[in-house]
Amino acid sequence: MNYLPSEFESGRTPVNRLQAVAGSSSRALSERANTAAADDTDRCLLIIDSRTLERECLATTLTRNGLGMTALAVGSVAEWRRKKDPRQRVKAVLLNIAGRTTSDGLLCGEIASIAAELAPAPVIILGDGDNLSQTLKVIEQGARGFIPTSVGIEVCVEAIALAVAGGTFIVAGNNFAASMAVDSAPRQRELSRMFTLRQAEVVQALRKGKANKIIAYELNLRESTVKVHIRNIMKKLKATNRTEVAYKLNDLFQSDTRWNAPAE
Length: 264
Description:
Layout: H1 6-10, H2 15-42, E1 43-48, H3 52-64, E2 70-74, H4 77-83, E3 89-96, H5 105-117, E4 123-127, H6 132-140, E5 145-148, H7 153-164, E6 169-170, H8 174-194, H9 197-207, H10 212-219, H11 223-237, H12 242-253
Parallel strand pairs: 1-2, 1-3, 3-4, 4-5, 5-6
Helix pairs in contact: 8-9, 9-11, 10-11, 11-12
């Protein structure tokens, strides 16, 4: 539906101008839609999975749930080389390791090779479990995130978007939490003086630039509850938005190494 200026409503504009304005507006909308469509098709997520049905289902599901780019599903890097379109930019790579683990030396070499060949596109690994040592191993090989198959599709989309934006996605599962308990204890005690325990956990996530959906998933909260915590944190810091919250926190604690958020 095209918006018509108020002069049409008052009858001051001749009817013969109505068609010209509406037609011009339609053409402008069409051009913008074509430009947006071109932008989407110009960027793609490369999905690598040796299993045909799984990769095709994953490509369709991600595209229909806000991926924001096309999805190209292939069985291997060699297949991608044969099919690749030079006009299409690979913005990210999702490698489904399909039950394999980093104890397989060939897998580590494969991840490192893909990361080097397709740089600067980030490589995200999709695999089973949330084992910390395996997660760190894939990061060492050049991956920019590990998505466990236990997460929902929305979290998967958010994780890919985070990697494209320059971040690293790691799910802080049970194994991760246990291994970090000793190191994080002093920091949590200091945070508790200013915030509640739950707010302190949200603060740490905000300082790492995590999206609300990811914070909700990692802390087992509703996204609406995360938003409430963020509003309360903003009030305590007298901040007007998330960016100002992160800035004030980093400025407040940069001189104290206990507050340095672990790199992700």
